[in-house]
Description:
The structure holds 2 protein chains of 2 kinds. In chain A, helix 3 crosses helix 4 (about 110-120), helix 3 (about 95-105) runs parallel beside helix 5 (about 140-150) and helix 8 crosses helix 11. The longest helix of chain A has 18 residues, at about 295-310. Chain A is built from 11 helices and 14 strands. Chain A is of the alpha/beta class. By secondary structure, chain B is mostly helical. Chain B has 2 domains: about 50-170, abc type-2 transporter like fold; about 175-375, no CATH class. In chain B, helix 3 links the parallel strand 1 and strand 2 (about 75-80). In chain B, helix 2 packs antiparallel against helix 7. The interface of A and B includes residues 55 and 106 of A.
Amino acid sequence: MTNSIEVKNLVKKFGKFTAVDNISFNVSKGEVFGFLGPNGAGKTTTIRMLCGLMDPTAGEGLVGGYSISRQGEEIKQNIGYMSQKFSLYEDLTVGENIDFYQGIYQTPKEGRRSKKEEIIERSELFGKENELTANLAGSVKQHLALGCALVHEPKIVFLDEPTAGVDPLSRHKFWGVIKDLSRLGITTLVTTHYMDEAERCDRIALINDGIIIAIGSPAELKSSSMKGLLFEIECSNVMAGLEVIKNLPVVIDVTLYGLFLHAVVNKMEDLDQIKSALSQKGIEVKRAEKIVPSLEDVFVFLVEKENRDKIRSGR
Amino acid sequence: MIRRLWPIIRKEFLHLLRDPRSLLLMFLLPVFMLILFGYAVSFDVKNIPLAVYDQDNSTASRAFIERFTRNGYFNLVEKMRSDNDIPDRLDSGKARVILNIPDDFSKRLQAQETAKIQILVDGSDPNWASSALAYINSILQTYQQDRIRAVFIKRGSLLTLPIDLITRIWYNETLRSLNFFIPGLICVILMQMSATLTSLTIVSEKEQGTMEALVVSPIRKNELMLGKVLPYVIIAFLDVILVTGIGVFWFGVPFKGSVVFLLFSSFVFLLGAMSIGVLVSTNARSSQEAIQVALLTTMLPAILLSGFVFPIENMPLILQAITYVLPARYFLTILRGIFLKGIGLAYLWPEFSALLILSFLILFASVRRFKKRIE
């Protein structure tokens, strides 16, 4: 078995609302697979279905070779799961939290002491074993929660927005841990809405409104999903510039990107048209250069394309 | 199957230890309730305020009045001077029984004629009034007997009464209502304590966000449920001992039965009562909702329908039918049996079996109702 996770035509509906709309993807062993999308895109719902916490409305999924609709309890033996809420008991000490999770996962008694020390060390909680969890900093809690979710050394790990509300340095460290897991052959499925985190995944699925709009490695997505060239334009009045560029037929897409405009066109020469259109309206172009699209560009481009397609097809 | 029970139990105990105020409350509340109820709830009618309008004011009339006041049932509050005062004394509640003795009382007794005495009783509380009437009748009966006997002796002959009733009251010889109430009260307190204690256990995991971690773990439903119930059963078990001790040593309620049977049946009862709380907790969306529902579903039936105050036999059939599914009904009978009658399983096995079945049914229902799912 090379795929740790296989998902085929998975659907989840809540009443009339379709949270996950017919998604399919595979995650191979040892891969760090990212789910990138805005809040409400269906990331958490998908993870919950894969962990056996929710029954799918339709479709099938295999996690570690077990069916998500029929073998939920087998899956639970073999996965680690960490939700955005961290799942620690605040009124218990660090040591007690670890003891508890070792207990309910029935890890071998001999290994418990050393595993506990390992978790404490990794969470940089040395000497704080008897500290109440409520008194810990958010980033430390996050490491501890991950340690608790992994007490039974699962081969597949689900992380649902593990870095929500954690400072950038801690986020960076946390991703170091995820990479370490990957080197040990552990498969990780992680959801995020941070672009920089998505860049660190082996592969990502872009998800919006319950639909996977693109899937591939960050490099692949950047090079292939965006047809055309991306220019970053700095001009004297971005808002007016946006209006002008938007209406040019050669421009496939244009978005506001901080203080700059990002415009997608088909060929190099199209940039001249943009420049002349802007200067006609009295907008001064300070800088215009071809750039490598970031994941955010790709994401915005694909989402807008999807929306345009929807409107066009009358959906 | 229950390997993961211990981690859950241990964790629940730690939660309790980290919250000393709640822990203290678990012991103080039952004691407080028992003492409060123990003193406030009494159906014994004593010290009835009695006012007398003695128009005769003779040795005979004073001797007659003394019959009322000498055994503590009546308390002479006033000797009135005019019958105009009579309505006022009843209206104001200064007196609840009024004795009106006409001025020819001693003269008629002397002449061996029938003397007429008027007694007015405040009947606004029928329970109370009928108790008062019963005392009055019994006082009068002895008075009549004594008078008749005296007359016979004067005539040189002895009176033999046709019937000499020898009454013996069993179980609660002094008919002290507290003896009847305290065992029932223990049942009501435990019922309500139990359900409110466990009503938070599941819903708080949901609110803290730890439920997801539990649900995604390989823990079994029965391990989780039993692990949540047992620590509280143990706490409440200590409450049983505490409350029973106070009932026996402070309020002087007799304890005639077996302590082992008391503890054993309490355990079974607590298991059921705690499971009601867990069942409520699995269905509740918030802590507040859980506590309110738990209070409502346990307190009212335990007080009103268990036979604690109102005899089940007097209820309409439909209410009687409901009482059969209340654990409190059976536990109440068992408690009264143990405390007052000193009987055990030989007599109480029907109630005990019913309690056992009910408790396990509720526990089973709470396990069934809990879904290892997030919706």
